[in-house]
Every structure is written in structure tokens, then in C-alpha cells.
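Aim 2, interim progress. The first record below pairs a target sequence with its C-alpha cells.
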Amino acid sequence: MFILLISLMLFSAVAAATVRHVPVGQVYSLYRHGKPIRLMQAGLHLVLPLLDRVAHKIDLAGQTLRFEEPLATSREVSGTVYWQVLEPERADAVFEQVDQLIRHGAQQVLRDEPEVDPIDRRDLGARLKQTLNKALRERGMMVTRVELDAA
């Protein structure tokens, strides 16, 4: 009887691990042996519990990233970049490096700016957004808004 109970519990645990629920507005990337095999859209999905793992949980609604970059004039520019994933298939490969891509792009644009006047913040934000979108669009992502803080 004890062996039957243990077997039933083990079977239930394995059966529960084979079902994955992906919430609306998200996409999960499923990897097997370290290689991507498919993207799971919203809904219920069957997976192999010991072989498959969810590598990325990609939120399609949008993300934010705060940054602070020192300028040549010893002042710092800080702000927020709002971005979102448009094509999860392309974004999955670089999803872990998005923060670095955005910070690197912000550094490139802001290095060329010796002074940031409060009036010019909107222009600088637009240039920053345009530069970041050039780098991110080909990877399936888009910057929706850049807000620079007042110095």
C-alpha cells in the first residue's frame, strides 16, 4: 500500500510538471539541452519535465530601464528608457543583453553631448531614442520613450 501511495504521488508530480501555463501578455522560450526549441504563447503547454526548461519569460507589455551616465563635463545625465518586445522570436537570442545594449547606446549618444540644457533634454531624448531603435529594431525590440531627468 505504501509503495502504491509513493508511486501515485510521484506520477502526480511528474504529470503536474509537464503542464506549463503562460499568462496573457507573455511569451516563454523553451530550451532543451541548452538550445532553443520553441516559443510558448499564452495558454497551456505540454513540456518534458526533465529535458525542457523555460529560459526566458518575455513580457510583451513593456519594460523600463533606469540609467545614469557621466559626461565629459563631470556632470551626470540620468533617465528612463521604456522599451518593449515586438518580435519574441528575434528578441529571445539577445534578451539577456538588452540592458547592456541600451546602456552602451546611451553612452555613445551622451558622450557627444558636452552640456545638457533643460530645454535641449527633449531633443537629446529623441536622438537617444532614434539611436537605440536603430540597434534594437533588428533584434525585434523597440524603444517607445526616453525620459531624461533634470540636472
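The second target in this work package is listed in the same format:
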Amino acid sequence: MRSKRKKHGAERLEACAAFLTDPASAGDYTALFGNDRPVRVEIGCGKGDFIVGTAANEPQVNFLAVERVHDVLMMAAEKVRDADLENVRLCLADVKDLQLPAGSVDRLYLNFSDPWPKNRHAKRRLTARSFLQVYEQFLRPGGQLCFKTDNAPLFAFTLEELQAAGWTVDSLTDDLHASPENEGNVQTEYERRFSALGFPIHRVVAHKN
């Protein structure tokens, strides 16, 4: 059964209109941000903790946060608005609907994506080869994919897909919070939850050759 949208959700999202864009306009970075700074994209931004923390730490970088669930994007948009982050724009969209210029994205973040655990649903995983091919188009040469998850089978699948698709792994850890790479790590809502339950956080950073 499809869950009901939050009460006044449309009005709440409209109140954040200054920070929103649509899939067709998301690639017009000059119009969105008013500058030509590097652009980074988060696919599946959830409730926005990661994008808000990361954008606040890196004000000289522009961030596009993408989420396909209306009410989840609404909550992220409210956080961006309340933090008054001029270097963030949000888009209600599926990744395949985005129209981003080729070679225009500096870095792509995938944080705690749906694992789609059944084998017959493997193609829906955001690190499946068909999605990697989409990312290749809009990442600049050498642009990085940064993927975090608590799900070990999904992480193993991701590493296999990256290798099969010809990507190079730049860094890899099976326990991010216990590694030196955790310095500067901005946690998501899911990350805090799973880490508190004792799940190690896996992360890989890779680029397309």
C-alpha cells in the first residue's frame, strides 16, 4: 500500500521553492547557483543531513541533492532552507530523469541506497552497471563516485560491478568509522542509526578509467 503524503506537504515544499529545481533545469548550473564553481551531486539525499553538513563544510562547492520521494525531499529542503545554504539545490526526480551536461559533475555521492536484496531486482540497485553507465556520462574525467552502505552483500555487489564496468578504486574500507578515512566524514541519518546498532559502515571511492 502506498503511504499517504504528509499533511500540508505540498505547501511545505513550496515554501522551499528558492532551493528547488526540476529535472530538465538541474543541469543549468549557472542559472541555479549564479557561479561556475565545481558541482557535486547526491543521489537519494534522504532527509538531508549529509548534504547540509557537507555543503556547510565546503561553501566553495555547489551541491545538487536528488530524491525521488516527495515527503523525504520536503524534509531535506526544509533543512537546507533553515541553514540558508546558497550552494545547495534540490530536485525531485529519479536519477535517469536528470538532464545533466556530459562531464560536468565533480563528484557523485550514493549514501545508503536501497539494497534491493532479491536477485531478480539487482538491476534496480543504484550501483548496477546500467546506473554506472549513466554516471559515467555526467561525471568529469577523473570524477569520483563515493558510495557508503551498512549492507555487506550490496557492498560486495558494488565492488564487482565497478570492476566489471572498468572503474578504478581509489579508496576502500569495510569499517569507515574505525579507519583514518573517517576524518571529515559527514554522517547520514541512516549511518548514525546503523552505526549505533553495531553495523560497520562500508565505503568505496572510485573513478572511471
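The chain is about 30% helix and 25% strand. This observation will shape the mutagenesis plan for the next reporting period.
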